[in-house]
Amino acid sequence: MRFDFRYLDKKKAKAVLRTVFSILHSNMSVIAPTGNSYAEDERIFLENVAPALEKAPRQIVLFYDGEILFGYFQYYVNGELFMMEEIQLKREYWHCGAFGEFYRWLLPLLPDGIARVEAFAHKKNENSRSILRHLGLRPIDENENHIHFRGEFSALCDHYVKNA
Prior knowledge:
single chain, 164 residues, alpha+beta, Aminopeptidase, seven-stranded mixed sheet, globular
């Protein structure tokens, strides 16, 4: 497989966000179902993501296999912080090397001066928690549903340079 990563054109976001939501829903409906209908979850997602994308630092990178949209990564950079907000792949693309190829593509594009990386993982999402630990992030806090992870940005970069 050869993957292609493209920044979401925020002006054309509406055309893609329903597909992005379908990827999120297919994973989270198994891991942490909300109890809402698909339509209600989609409405909530669209109402929250669209305004968030208006903020300049927030970005979504789309993952393609040819012309098939199979995943996305949402993040922002704020000074020394690289905040990984969401990464989702269709299940048939799990364990195929997309994460590594993506990080090797993205990390050199990020601005200088980043010192730490943070992310949240749903408590029920062992796969996500395992990936974050593998990337060198450690739990620093938690609430009812999520665990907050933090790590050194340089360690994340070293992991993907070393494993290139």
